[in-house]
Amino acid sequence: MVLAIGAILVGQTAAAAQAGDDDDRSDLAPGSGETLVIGRPTWDTGWFQAEIMAQLLGELGYVIDGPITYDNEDFYREVQAGTVDLWVNGWFPLHDQLLPEGPSTGAERIGFEVKGGALQGYMADLATIEATGIETLADLADPEVAARFDRDGNGKADLIGCNLDWACHPVVEHHLEAYGLSETVEQISSDHGPLMQSAANRYAQGQPVLYYTYSPNWTLGVLVPGRDVTWIPVPEPSLPAGMADQETDTVVPGIEGCPADPCAMGFPPNDIRSVANSRLLEEQPAIASLLEQFSITLDDISAQNALMYRGEDSSADIEEHAADWISDNRTLVDRWLDAATQAHLDAGLELGPRPASTDANVIEVGTIRVATRTAPPFVTFDDDTYAGFTMELLEMVAEEIGAGLEIYGVTSNAKLIDDVARGEADVGAGALAITSERERQIDFSQPYFDSGLQILVPIDDDGAFGRRLAAVARNLFSGNLLLVCLTLVVVLVVAAHIVWLAERKNNPEFPQSYRAGIWEAFWWAAVTATTVGYGDKTPKGVAGRLFGLLWMFVGLFVLAYFTAGIASAFAIDELQGQISGPADLRGKNVGVVADSLAEEYLRTQGIPATEYVTGQEAYNALVDGSLDAIVHDAAILQHFITENAEGGVEITGVLFAERGFGFALASDSELTEALNRGLIGVIESGDYSELHDQWFGADR
Where does a domain end: 302, 327, 353? Predict the structure, then answer.
């Protein structure tokens, strides 16, 4: 028997195993907590039976590792070696070559879960069968007939066949060769289940389908023989070497949906049987007794397979299906378990204590030591009690996985991460963003909150007039404004020279002396450009008047340029004084919380920042004017604003540096899986949504 340490416990709490008329032995069982490794096949249509057996063995007091999926060859090799104990998915005679009859193999077949009812064969849709006149599989040798089922355009019929590791795969290949179909038909051997789902969809669209199938299988309930599809007989029995003695068994009478009776299926009907390690059966008569009795109808298996096809296909669904079947067949099951317990006692073995728990997927967690750091609204600390969104969520997760919490506080994220990394704390909880830098030291749970950074700035409405005066003073001496003014002077000087040269000889309003004339011309150019002239000076000559006319229109553009230049200088000053995103933080007094995502982000961007121990300290510095801005988590900043309605601050810009929050755990912590499972459970139950809306509102 394989004894696996720390296995996942599977199964339902057992009914009391009574070993005598007078003694109450409800806490005793044959298994006594010993661990079994149970296998299951790669085809999921057999997982239902495997889960039933796992739960029944759990009721007998065994701890189950698995069921673990094995391909055929691996399972039969491992069960004979004793590294896996059993499965209930042996198909015989199909698996004869993998487990020959005889006592020397180290494993043996036991019981008949389904006797003689497991069928295999070929099927096609009725419409194509009738249109082409197909009578046997050999008719697919006709290229025109085969082309009806050609989906990839290579001229061959696409036959959905067996997975490469299934024992039926070489049988299908043998048939294609034996019936002369190698040139017209090819076996598609990837994943049978998804291929059959595609085939069912194609059939619903009126397209031809051709496939191998077996029972029990959901396909027989979706593509019903005789109504939607029909079995295709083989022309004559033929099996690979080593199976020739089974050829006469391949002709089976009374097959519904087959055009001939008896029907040449091409495969012998199979018994579905349990296979177990021989030493296990010898040492554990209770297991031998249960496997000997275990049986389940094809109808029950097919009904469960149909549930999986309709979407109830998770591991939890299959466990529930098995538990429901056990409940529906409780009287029969109790007889099996009583007989198994009696077989144990008859062998002179004593019953032992049951495992402490046999609930599915239970992992003993115990008390979780939690390091946390206050970061409202995620973690608050009042009256010696930690609360907040993160702490309430962690309490829900702990309840989900059956754990207790022991909480203590730290004053920095660096301390929190260090405590987790060296094992002082099992879990770190706070407003801890998941980053690559932190992942180098610790692991994280799945994200439980999506957030990012934003910027908090003062509103400062009372100082608006002062800011305007300061802006005027700055702009009067700004480089931009000086350049605009210099350009205007140069243009006016040029215009003054032109009009003076044109008018100085014939117009006394523009004296001939350079000093006096240029000044009067400059005056004329300025007033004409700004007011279209006062009329105190006007050109007299033709050239002067033409230039004057031109200058009136040019002056409009000169004035517009000057006005725009001044407005631009003030606008740039205004924009430079505003903060609307990370790029505007350079040159400003910025505050962050030490060891936070904001501190890490600004450091990588090369933006200096003042670090504070808490967000409240940074907030106070912003309000008293020591800071121009705070960069912090968006939800925490919103909390500051909500809690300080008169604070005169506002959030500016959009969310950036988006990250998820997670619980911190040590690298390779055994708690990671349990914590994630509990978190998912809280989310699926709807409790997470209620908690989120309570703290952040439904619209966030």
Answer: 353
Burial 324-345 (b: 16+ CB within 10 A, else e): ebbeeeeeebbebbbebbbbbb
Q: Examine residue 262 and say whether the peptide bond preceding it is cis (omega within 30 degrees of 0).
A: yes
530 and 429 inside one domain: no
Question: Are residues 373 and 440 located together in one domain of the fold?
Answer: yes
Residue 506 tokens, joined: 């014939």
Distance between CA atoms of residues 118 and 90, nearest Å: 11
Q: What is the DSSP letter of 643?
A: H
pLDDT digits (tens, 9 = 90+) for 228-272: 999 999 999 999 988 888 999 999 999 999 999 999 999 999 999
Asked if 248 and 128 sit in the same domain, the reply is yes
Residues 560 and 673 in one domain: no
Residue 97 lies in domain: 28-112+272-353
pLDDT, tens digit (0-9, with 9 covering 90-100), for 64-114: 998 999 999 999 999 999 999 999 999 999 899 899 876 667 999 999 999
Domain assignment present for residue 417? The answer is yes
CB-count burial class (<10 Å; 0-12, 13-18, 19+) for 395:
middle
Q: Out of 268, 291, 316, pick the residue that ends a domain.
A: 268
**Do 302 and 209 fall into the same domain?**
no
CB 157 within 8 A of CB 186: yes
379: its two tokens: 């973690």
**What Cα–Cα distance (Å) separates residue 438 from each residue in 365, 414, 445, 447, 548?**
25, 10, 13, 14, 74
